[in-house]
Amino acid sequence: MLRSLAPQVLGVLARTHGQFDACEDAVQEALLEASVQWPTSMPDNPRAWLMTVANRRLVDMFRSERARRSREERVMAMDLQAGPAAEADDTLTLMFLCCHPALSAASQLALTLRAVGGLTTAEIASAFMVPEATMGQRISRAKQGIQKAGATFSMPPPSERKARLGVVLHVLYLIFNEGYAASSGPSLQREELTTEAIRVARLLVAVAPRELEAAGLLALMLLTDSRRAARTLPDGTPVPLAEQDRSLWNRGQIQEGIALLSSVLGRGAAGPYQLQAAIAAVHAEATSGDETDWPQILALYTVLEAVAPSPVVTLNRAVAVAMAQGPAEGLELLAGLDSALGRSHRLDAVRGHLLEMSGSFAEARAAYLSAAKKTGSLPERKYLMGKVALMDQP
C-alpha cells in the first residue's frame, strides 16, 4: 500500500508547493513513520494520514525558513481528499517531472525510481550496478537539478512528452523487474512493486493510446506477472520456468496480454518492449517446458539484440541458443560478458545451468557457488546452494 500511496501524496505536495526536494523529503519521513505505526494502528484513511504527516513535516521545514505564515496558509487550503482522477494524473505528472530534460538520462531514471517507484537508494544502486554512495549523490544532484531548472508540477507539452516517454517506460520496466525478481531481501518477489508498475502502465496506455511501446510494456508485464503463483514453492524456494506448474498461471492476464500485444504488432516497427512481450507470449502459449518453441524465441532475441543491444539481452539469447542448438553454443556467447556482467550473479547462474546441461558438473558447481555468493536475494541464494549440493552428489 505504501508503494502506491507514495507517488500520489508526493504528487499533491509537489503540485501545491512546487519544491520537489522538500516535498520528497517530507514524504519519505511520513513513510518511515507509517512503517512504524501502521502495523499496530492502521488509520481509516491511509492516504489522508500520509498527507497530514507529510504536511506537518513541510510546515516544520517552512518555519525554519522563516516563511511560516504564507506556507501554512497554503497547506491548510489543500484538499486532502483529492479524487481518483487527480491521483492518477498526479502519478503520471510526477513521472514526467522526474524525467525533466535538464537531467541526464541516468539521473532521470534514478530520481523516478526513488520518487515514484519508492525504491531505496540501495535497490536503485543494485539495478544500475554502481555503489550505493554514488547513487545517493546522483539522486541528490537530480533533485537539485529539478529545482534549478524551475520545473513546475504539470504535464509537459506534447512535444516534450514524447521525448520523455522513453525514460518513463524504462523506469516502469525497472520497477516491475525489481518486484518480479527482488535484488535483495527474504522474498523472491515483491508484489507491491509489480502491482504498482502495472497500475501506472495502465494509466499511461489510457492517456497515450497511440504509443505502441507503452502497450507493449503493459503486455510484457501482464504476461510475465501471470506466472507469479507458480514461481516459488510454499517455503519461498524459486521454481525454474521449465519446472513450474502451469495450471497456476493466471490465464486472465495471459489472455489480456496476448490481446494487447496483438493489437499493436504490425502497426509499425516493433520496439524492445513489444519484442520482449512476444517472447513472453511464446512461453505463455507452451503447454509445458518441453513444448516451448525455442527456435522462435531465439529468432525474437536475435531481433531484440539488433534493436536494443545490451549484455542482458545477450545473456538471455545465450540461454535460447543453448535450448535450441545445444549448451556448447550458448556457453560460447557467455565468454564475452564477464566484463559487463561480472558483478551480477545472473551470469554465473546461467553459466552454471549451461555447464550442468553439458555434463560439466564440477565447473557447474563452481559457477553456482560463485552466483550464490554474489546475490543479495536469500531465496535465490538458497536455490543456488541447493544446486551446489546437487552437483556434489555422486
Number of strands: 2
- Described by the principal axes of the CA atoms, the overall outline is globular
Gyration radius (Cα, Å) is 23 Å
Q: What distance separates the N and C termini?
A: 48 Å
Instruction: Describe the strand arrangement of the main beta sheet, using strand numbers.
Output: 1-2
What percentage of residues falls in helices of 4 or more residues? over 70%
The oligomeric state of the chains shown is single chain
**Number of helix segments?**
20
Given helix and strand content, the structural type is mainly alpha
Could you explain the architecture of this structure?
There is one protein chain. With 394 residues, the chain is mainly alpha-helical. Helix content is 71%, strand content 1%. It contains 20 helices and two strands. It has helices at 2-17, 20-37, 46-64, 68-76, 84-98, 105-115, 121-128, 132-148, 158-180, 191-207, 212-225, 251-264, 272-285, 294-307, 311-325, 327-334, 338-341, 345-358, 361-374, 378-392; strands at 184-185, 376-377. The chain has a two-stranded parallel sheet. Helix 1 runs antiparallel to helix 2 and helix 3 (46-64) runs antiparallel to helix 4 (68-76). The longest helix is centred in the middle third of the chain and has 23 residues, at 158-180. The protein is globular and about 70 Å long.
Per-chain topology:
Elements: H1 2-17, H2 20-37, H3 46-64, H4 68-76, H5 84-98, H6 105-115, H7 121-128, H8 132-148, H9 158-180, E1 184-185, H10 191-207, H11 212-225, H12 251-264, H13 272-285, H14 294-307, H15 311-325, H16 327-334, H17 338-341, H18 345-358, H19 361-374, E2 376-377, H20 378-392
Parallel strand pairs: 1-2
Helix pairs in contact: 1-2, 1-3, 1-5, 2-3, 3-4, 6-8, 6-9, 7-8, 9-10, 9-11, 10-11, 11-12, 11-13, 12-13, 13-14, 14-15, 15-16, 16-18, 18-19, 19-20
